[in-house]
C-alpha cells in the first residue's frame, strides 16, 4: 500500500523510525489493544503530542516551541492555524526553530500566508493533508504541489448538483465512500466541502487523481476573557468522543458565553451528568467565568458552502483574526 509520507519524500520505514511531533489531540488506543501493541505504539512512534487543550497563551506557545526544539522531529503534524500561531510567536520572540524534513498540516484551510510563515520559521516544506473526522485521510499534497486523492483509503468523487462527476478544472461537492470503515460504512457521504478537479496530471508522475483546490475547511479560535486563544478544533475532538452526540455546533457568542447546539444520536439519551462534565471541560479551557449554554435541536446550522461548521467564534471573527493577518 502506498504510504502518505511517500508523497512528502519519506519512506514508510523511515517514517516509523523517525521522531515526530503531533500538535494534535492525543489518540486513545481502544481498550482491546494489547500491551505489546501499546508499547510498540509508544516506542516505535517516537511521537510527542503537544496537548491541544492548552490555550495559546504566550507562555504555552513558548513552551510548545521549546518542546519541539528538544524533541528535534523529522516530521510535524499539526492543525494548520495552531502551527501558524506558533510560527508567528516564534518570529515575534526570536526563537530559532529546529528544522524538520517536512510538516503536514490538516483540519483547516492552509492559506498561502500561513504556509509562507510556517515554511519560513521551520525552514522546511509544508504539505497540506485533507482529512476529516468521519473518513480519515482523503488527499495529501506531494512535493510538486499536487493534492493527490488517497484512493487506497477512500473513494472520492467531485460531483455537480445533479450528481455527475464534474469536468477537469471545475468545482463540485466532495462525496466520499470509505473503503476501510467496517464498523460504520459511509457510502457516497457528502462531506460538505467543495473541490476543484485539476485539469493537468501532476508533474510527480503519480497515477492518483489530483485536486486543484479544496474550499470550506474553516475552524476558528476562541478568545478567553484574559485574551488567550483556544483552538476551536479542540472542541471538535472533545465532542467526537461521545457517541450519544450525533452532531454539534459550538458558538462563542461573546468572551463569557458559549452556546452548544447538539443533536442526539437516535435512540440514545443524554447520560446523567454528561452536560455538567462537558461544561467543566470547556470551562477548564476557556476560564470559569465563561458560561456554557446547551441547546438540543434537530436542525444544525451550515456554512454558506453547505459544510457543517462544528465551531464558530463571533469574537474571533470580529477581531478580524483571518488567516490573511500574518
Ligand atoms: Zn504529485
Main attributes?
alpha/beta, globular, binds zinc ion, disordered C terminus, 11-stranded mixed sheet, 326 residues
Number of strands: 17
Shape verdict: globular
Name the ligand types.
Answer: zinc ion
* Assembly status: single chain
Arithmetic mean of pLDDT: 81
Kindly provide the radius of gyration, computed on alpha-carbon positions and rounded to a whole number of angstroms. 20 Å
Q: Class by helix and strand content? A: alpha/beta
Largest sheet: 11 strands, mixed
Distance between the termini: 39 Å
What fraction, in percent, of the residue positions are helical? 25-40%
**What is the count of helical runs?**
8
As laid out across the biggest beta sheet, the strand order is 2-1-3-4-5-6-7-11-10-9-8
List low-pLDDT spans.
320-326
Percent range for β-strand residues: 25-35%
Order of helices and strands: HEHEHEHEHEEEEEEEEEHEEHEEH
Strand and helix layout:
Blueprint: H1 12-17, E1 20-23, H2 35-45, E2 47-49, H3 58-71, E3 75-79, H4 80-93, E4 102-106, H5 112-122, E5 126-132, E6 136-141, E7 147-149, E8 154-159, E9 171-178, E10 189-197, E11 210-215, E12 221-223, E13 229-231, H6 233-240, E14 245-254, E15 257-264, H7 274-286, E16 291-296, E17 311-313, H8 314-318
Parallel strand pairs: 1-2, 1-3, 3-4, 4-5, 14-17, 15-16
Antiparallel strand pairs: 5-6, 6-7, 7-11, 8-9, 9-10, 10-11, 12-13, 14-15
Helix pairs in contact: 3-4, 4-5
The protein binds zinc ion.
Zinc ion binds next to loops.
Amino acid at each position: 500500500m502506498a504510504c502518505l509520507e511517500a508523497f512528502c519524500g519519506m519512506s514508510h520505514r523511515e517514517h516509523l523510525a523517525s521522531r515526530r511531533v503531533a500538535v494534535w489531540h492525543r489518540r486513545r488506543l481502544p481498550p482491546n489493544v494489547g500491551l505489546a501493541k501499546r508499547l510498540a505504539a509508544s516506542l516505535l512512534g517516537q511521537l510527542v503530542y503537544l496537548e491541544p487543550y492548552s490555550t495559546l497563551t504566550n507562555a504555552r506557545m513558548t513552551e510548545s516551541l521549546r518542546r519541539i526544539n528538544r524533541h528535534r522531529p523529522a516530521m510535524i503534524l499539526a492543525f494548520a492555524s495552531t502551527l501558524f500561531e506558533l510560527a508567528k510567536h516564534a518570529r515575534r520572540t526570536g526563537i530559532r526553530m529546529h528544522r524538520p524534513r517536512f510538516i503536514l498540516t490538516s483540519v483547516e484551510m492552509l492559506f498561502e500566508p500561513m504556509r509562507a510563515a510556517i515554511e519560513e520559521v521551520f525552514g522546511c516544506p509544508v504539505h497540506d493533508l485533507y482529512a476529516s473526522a468521519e473518513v480519515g485521510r482523503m488527499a495529501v499534497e506531494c512535493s510538486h504541489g499536487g493534492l493527490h486523492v488517497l484512493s487506497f483509503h477512500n473513494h472520492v468523487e467531485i460531483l455537480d448538483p445533479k450528481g455527475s462527476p464534474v469536468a477537469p478544472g471545475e468545482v463540485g461537492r466532495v462525496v466520499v465512500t470509505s473503503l476501510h470503515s467496517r464498523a460504520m460504512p459511509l457510502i457516497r457521504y457528502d462531506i460538505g466541502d467543495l473541490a476543484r478537479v485539476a485539469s493537468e496530471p501532476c508533474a510527480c508522475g503519480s497515477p492518483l487523481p489530483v485536486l486543484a483546490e479544496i474550499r470550506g475547511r474553516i475552524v476558528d479560535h476562541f478568545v478567553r476573557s484574559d485574551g488567550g486563544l483556544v483552538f476551536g478544533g479542540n472542541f471538535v475532538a472533545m465532542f467526537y468522543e461521545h457517541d450519544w452526540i450525533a452532531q454539534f455546533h459550538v458558538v462563542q457568542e461573546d468572551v463569557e458565553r458559549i452556546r452548544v447546539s447538539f443533536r442526539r444520536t437516535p435512540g440514545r439519551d443524554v447520560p446523567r451528568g454528561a452536560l455538567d462534565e462537558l461544561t467543566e471541560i470547556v470551562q477548564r479551557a476557556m476560564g470559569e467565568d465563561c458560561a456554557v449554554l446547551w441547546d438540543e435541536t434537530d436542525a444544525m446550522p451550515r456554512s454558506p458552502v453547505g459544510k457543517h461548521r462544528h465551531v464558530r467564534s463571533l469574537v474571533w471573527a470580529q477581531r478580524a483574526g483571518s488567516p490573511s493577518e500574518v
